[in-house]
């Protein structure tokens, strides 16, 4: 009898202990934290570790090579080119998407039936996968059957090869990406624009500012934080460009559109399956992305402080 | 009040008024034309895809291209199941994206709840830990993740696909912002009534969070449904591919039969599109939340 009593009270005190918010919190968070730790943080550290090894996908002949992989990177023209292609894509894509998205948001900020319809339409490509977008655009840009070469031809231009042309392939991919993603920027900027207090416009109007002046002196300064956020996330996202390239050109022609992630993927997951070397390229890319995101974060918070 | 004064001045000066109105009308017409053009640019590829998926192969590969064909057929939608293992792709995508969505809703809201409404040791540290993981791109840790999964024999399994995606820093962040916004005295009153912490969470807090949960649900569903690199890394056999990975591998650079591929593309985006039509608000909310600053 007594034994049961103590076990019941033990159970009860156990329950009481974990039912206090200051203890229960750990139980609530445990699954997420464990997953993030095991499937994100540990692999992240693993990437750095693998960079110092010569290791292939079959785990045969693994050996420690120190900084050799990094030294190899600086002599690997294809790897360095892939970095430049990534930067090139970013320069093409990010400003275009942010500008198109912001203009669309500013133009559609008033809630009329037509504007609401336009907004819904512009968001449709966002829910479409890059694979599907890639398939659609491969066909639309196909020099033999595609609509876009045909239309350009009607305007007297020669039919360009787009995805198969070394100079046009990357801009084509960038335009396709803007087409697919500008709805995201539009949505974020729309939220920012609609949050601007109408009294700011009223006082600007009383000061005799026209619509254009209002846009540059009221709207833009008010949406700078969101604009900065869009630029930043876009920059970081563009540096990781992979899907659209994999589907449309697979890095070709002659590796001219090969991005850093595409290179890491093909180095690690196709012949010669060098996971170690691919990891060292990933480490370098991560350092670049981390520097970008930390410095833009610092810049933005500095800007915001200035504005206050 | 303002409108009335404006109209009286306009009445006095009717010449100016018609001028003003005309320029406004012209502006609004130009605006509508430009927007309609943009709408056309966005919509045309989809409409063309949809129409072409019902065409015979010979009508797809004509030059100059035609929007409409003389005859339409369901043939592509029948052939696609044989030419591509599409049924398997659909099943894998539904299981992976569906299960991931449900599990991450539970885990993200639990963690978000703890970070929003409970006081405990190390709270700030945990919060920053989650925020930092939000900034780690997948490609950076994909190789060790692949090795980890390989060693645990979880490659090519649903478990292996689902677990690493079963929680996201963004989801936690989103749920936390939601729970921070709920009134303070709610849980205190419930605690006085003798409800335990789990009950407070499931019976009081979660029902109040339905809009955010919906937004997070469609957000994670879309992300995982459309993801390419992640399933490409964690699956090696064709029978475990999801729709984007399978279609991408099948089409590659060179498409041999356009019709079935187009039918496959339509099928792959149709479920999300239907959900979008009915739950548009939540899709947009998810995107807008991602732009929210602290």
UniProtKB/TrEMBL annotation, chain A:
Topology in membrane: Multi-pass membrane protein
Transmembrane segments: 24-45, 87-108, 120-141, 161-179, 215-236, 275-299
Family recorded in the similarity comment: Belongs to the binding-protein-dependent transport system permease family.
Compartment(s) of residence: Cell membrane
Species whose genome carries this gene: Levilactobacillus angrenensis
InterPro entries noted in UniProt: ABC_transporter_permease, MetI-like, MetI-like_sf
Ranges of residues in domain ABC transmembrane type-1: 83-296
Main location: membrane
High-level lineage: Bacteria, Bacillati, Bacillota, Bacilli, Lactobacillales
Keywords associated with the record: Cell membrane, Membrane, Transmembrane, Transmembrane helix, Transport
Record-given protein name: Carbohydrate ABC transporter permease
């Amino acid at each position: 009898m007594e034994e049961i009593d103590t076990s019941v009270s033990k159970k009860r005190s156990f329950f009481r202990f974990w039912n206090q918010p200051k203890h229960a919190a750990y139980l609530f968070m445990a699954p997420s934290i464990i997953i993030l730790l095991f499937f994100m943080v540990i692999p992240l550290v693993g990437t750095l570790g693998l960079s110092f090894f010569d290791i292939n996908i079959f785990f045969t002949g693994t050996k420690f090579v120190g900084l050799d992989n990094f030294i190899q990177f600086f002599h690997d023209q294809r790897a360095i080119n892939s970095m430049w292609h990534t930067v090139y894509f970013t320069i093409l894509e990010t400003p275009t998407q942010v500008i198109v998205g912001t203009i669309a948001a500013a133009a559609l900020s008033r809630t009329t039936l037509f504007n609401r319809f336009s907004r819904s339409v512009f968001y449709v490509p966002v829910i479409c996968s890059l694979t599907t977008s890639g398939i659609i655009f491969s066909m639309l840009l196909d020099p033999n059957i595609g609509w876009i070469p045909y239309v350009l031809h009607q305007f007297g231009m020669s039919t360009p090869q787009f995805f198969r042309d070394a100079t046009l392939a990357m801009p084509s991919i960038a335009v396709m990406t803007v087409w697919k993603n500008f709805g995201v920027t539009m949505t974020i900027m729309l939220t920012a624009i609609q949050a601007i207090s109408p009294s700011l416009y009223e006082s600007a109007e009383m000061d005799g500012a026209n619509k254009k002046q209002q846009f540059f002196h009221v709207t833009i300064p008010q949406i700078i934080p969101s604009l900065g956020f869009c630029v930043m996330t876009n920059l970081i996202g563009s540096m990781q460009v992979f899907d659209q390239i994999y589907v449309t050109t697979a890095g070709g022609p002659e590796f001219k559109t090969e991005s850093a992630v595409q290179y890491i993927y093909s180095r690690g997951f196709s012949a010669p399956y060098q996971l170690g070397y691919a990891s060292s390229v990933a480490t370098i890319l991560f350092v670049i992305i981390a520097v970008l995101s930390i410095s833009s974060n610092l810049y933005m918070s500095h800007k915001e402080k200035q504005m206050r | 009040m303002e409108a009335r004064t404006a109209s009286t001045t306009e009445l006095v000066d009717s010449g100016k008024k018609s001028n003003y109105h005309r320029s406004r009308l012209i502006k609004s017409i130009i605006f509508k034309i430009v927007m309609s053009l943009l709408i056309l640019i966005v919509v045309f590829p989809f409409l063309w895809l949809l129409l072409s998926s019902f065409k015979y192969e010979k009508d797809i590969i004509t030059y100059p291209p035609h929007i409409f064909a003389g005859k339409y057929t369901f043939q592509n939608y029948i052939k696609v199941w044989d030419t591509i293992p599409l049924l398997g792709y659909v099943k894998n995508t539904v299981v992976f994206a569906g299960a991931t969505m449900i599990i991450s809703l539970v885990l993200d809201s639990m963690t978000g709840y703890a970070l929003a409404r409970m006081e405990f040791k190390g709270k700030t540290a945990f919060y920053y830990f989650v925020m930092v993981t939000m900034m780690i791109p997948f490609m950076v840790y994909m190789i060790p993740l692949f090795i980890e999964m390989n060693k645990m024999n979880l490659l090519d399994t649903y478990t292996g696909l689902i677990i690493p995606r079963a929680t996201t820093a963004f989801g936690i962040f989103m749920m936390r912002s939601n729970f921070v916004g709920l009134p303070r005295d709610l849980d205190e009153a419930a605690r006085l009534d003798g409800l335990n912490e789990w009950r407070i969470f499931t019976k009081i807090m979660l029902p109040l969070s339905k809009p955010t949960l919906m937004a997070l649900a469609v957000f994670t569903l879309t992300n995982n449904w459309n993801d390419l690199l992640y399933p490409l890394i964690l699956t090696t056999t064709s029978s475990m591919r999801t729709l984007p990975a399978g279609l991408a591998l099948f089409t590659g650079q060179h498409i041999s039969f356009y019709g079935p591929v187009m039918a496959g593309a339509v099928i792959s985006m149709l479920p999300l599109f239907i959900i979008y039509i009915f739950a548009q608000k939540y899709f947009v909310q998810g995107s807008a939340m991602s732009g929210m600053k602290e």
